[in-house]
Amino acid sequence: MINDNDNGITNKSKNRPFEDILKARISRRNLLASSMMLSAAGFVTAVAGNRVQQAVAGTGYGRKMWSSRRRHPWRGGELLRFEPVKVADGNGPVPVISSDYEYQVLIPWGTPIQPRGPEYDGDPNTRPTADEQAQQIGIGHDGMHFFPIRRKNNHGMLAINHEFGNNSHVLGKDDPENLEDVRLSQHAHGVSVVEIKRRFNGRWRVVGSNKARRIHVNTPVTFSGPAADHSLLQTSAGNAPLGTVNNCSNGYTPWGTYLTCEENFNGYFGATGEWTPTEAQERYGFSEGGFGYGWEKFDPRFDLSKAEYKNEENRFGWVVEIDPMDAYQIPVKRTALGRFKHEGVGLVVGRGGRAVCYMGDDQRFDYIYKFVSAENWRQMRSQGRSPLDEGKLYVAKFNDDGSGDWLELTIDNPLLAAKFKDQGEVLTYARLAADELGATPMDRPEWTTIAPDEYVYCSLTNNSRREQADKANPLAPNPDGHIIRWRDTNRHVGTSFTWDIFVIAEDTHGTEESFSDPDGLWADPEGRLFIQTDGGQKDGLNNQMLVANTKTGEIRRLFTGVTDDEITGVAVTPNQRTMFINSQHPGNGDPTLTNFPAPQGSGKIPRDCTFVIVRKNGGIVGS
Ligand code: FEO
Ligand code: CA
Ligand code: CA
Ligand code: CA
Fold this sequence. Notes:
Elements: H1 28-49, H2 62-66, E1 96-97, E2 101-106, H3 130-133, E3 141-148, E4 155-162, H4 167-170, H5 179-188, E5 190-198, E6 204-206, E7 213-215, E8 222-224, E9 247-252, E10 258-262, H6 279-283, E11 319-322, E12 332-334, E13 342-349, E14 354-361, E15 364-366, E16 368-376, H7 377-382, E17 391-398, E18 403-408, H8 414-417, H9 423-428, H10 430-437, E19 442-443, E20 445-450, E21 456-460, E22 482-488, E23 496-504, E24 518-523, E25 528-533, E26 544-549, E27 555-560, E28 566-572, E29 579-584, E30 609-615
Parallel strand pairs: 8-12
Antiparallel strand pairs: 1-27, 2-30, 3-4, 4-5, 5-6, 5-7, 9-10, 10-11, 11-12, 13-14, 14-16, 15-19, 16-17, 17-18, 18-23, 20-21, 21-22, 22-23, 24-25, 25-26, 26-27, 28-29, 29-30
């Protein structure tokens, strides 16, 4: 989300860095030289181990895609062979793609999720009704995943997040005037699951489906894990739990489910009457006016001053598990993964078959977390237990010597037992617990992804308010961000790691590799790192998707978006020959800046949409 809404700082803990390493500007060349030594060492270990089963969706192609036998991560310059989009070409009201590639627009906001459903085409003089919107693709396209049907490369379920849509974009006015307006806004948020298929002419389209569904702010949901029945998740109104909101990035499990992550949920709450924030409400950034959605005016569930709805706010800020193949499954909020502003989940299968989730909390000076399931995920599932319900949650501490520690958030730690009553409270107030343990405040952790050499990459999008640098966040201020990476000591289940910085965005400015504000990340099985951006780019560029060679550090630009959009979300078919990415908030909803995806000059409101990307020669996307 790019706007000022996520720019607040709620971390008032003493964990704010005071190391005396001001403006420690490490040169990019030195960084990469040391990284390459580390990764060379890491690769040898990975090959020697040769047992790592990294996991992608368990719908059949995970093993093939991640098998270490098939892994040839370091083919040097051969990894990137496409003609990059030049800096000088990467701007304007329509997208630009590498001359070796082509794209198709799919499922813009308002597309019916069933072919004969109601459609909205961006006409500024009409809007969908709330009921129509609940049958259509929402707005704010973000994280997504492709779940193939019968392992096919031309047919599957696409699960996609709808992070946010400002009232001016969705309603055509700043403030809702009635409950119908609020419901329209609520139905534009959440998740869509649609069935898509490629035709013989190569074009993808939405097809009729008994699996397709919309999940939004009023969809029934349930809780599981240690905090599921906690009093902090009950209201005195006794209302059943409903909905998911501000669904930012995502994850996917080896057992074939989709994980959607609730990020800036605080912004949808407000107060119509007298309200004094608690310590926890302050730490999570709740305020009287929220982000200006005005839901609290017509829907008391979002009114912080209504005593009977106290704790409703604790029902948001979780990772939610969705079965993309079963429209009747009730989405499950997995409390063992903690409550914070979840950007996304990078899930990998670590030592002993444990499911390991790396997660960023996207706010200035907030933290990076890791969850490790209690046991082998297959065993747990065969016993009817969820690997995401039992396990340990850790928060990261980055030491200046290049080492790091995972600090467990457990009520068994006396430091936490002194402040919290039980594990449910620790998880519900994970940020406050992490403050107590001395976690390292980061420059807005966004996506995490696991490369074939077991390095975990994490984008730190920016932090213009940083005053003291440390080695892991070496720029003060850091307006353009960087990408950090680490490697756990025990195949993802240990409590320590080593880390280094992959790239500092500022060091690319003025070159053909120019980018700022890294956000979406995906490491493919060959060692390419897809980097998507969300923020003011330098050198005149629109937001973009680039591909990096993780061995050499080379970066090439594959795609640039349209005026004032953000490029986010990345999914591929099993054979990696088709990729899906998103344009979020094109033109910030302003038709005078762009009408995309409608033709320029049509007067239509720009609409968030998905791009289907293929290489013209049919090759792997990114090559
Ligand atoms: Fe939803 Fe952190 O971007
Ligand atoms: Ca975003
Ligand atoms: Ca962002
Ligand atoms: Ca993001």
